[in-house]
Amino acid sequence: TNSLTEVRQALRVEPRTLIGVGLLVAVSSASLSLFKGLPFMTGLWYSETLPVLGKIGTPVIFDMGVYIVVVGVTLLIIFSLIEEG
Predict the structure, then answer these.
(1) pLDDT at 37 exceeding the cut of 80
(2) Cβ–Cβ contacts within 10 Å for residue 59, how many?
(3) For residue 1, what pLDDT is reported?
(4) Bridge partners (DSSP) listed for residue 45
(5) Residue spans per domain, the chain
(6) 12: exposed, middle or buried (C-beta count within 10 Å: 0-12, 13-18, 19+)?
(7) Are 65 and 18 in contact (CB under 8 A)?
(8) Is the sign of the CA dihedral 30, 36, 42, 46 positive or negative?
(9) Does residue 56 have a pLDDT over 60?
């Protein structure tokens, strides 16, 4: 458990926090279309082109939210397995 404590301190973020943030990002990006009177999860694209990313839209932000959730759940499972072992 000493190494697990070191890993948790190195991460500085609890896996449950990552899950919550990821869900918030994903649901928020999927809901933005509702404010424009469009169906839920309709892709919206920003007119400005970013230097490195190019054109970015809500589908990319949604995918980033899902990625954060997956990382959080994976870390939670790994930490749980280490604690049991």
Answers:
(1) yes
(2) 15
(3) 54
(4) 57
(5) 2-84
(6) exposed
(7) no
(8) negative
(9) yes
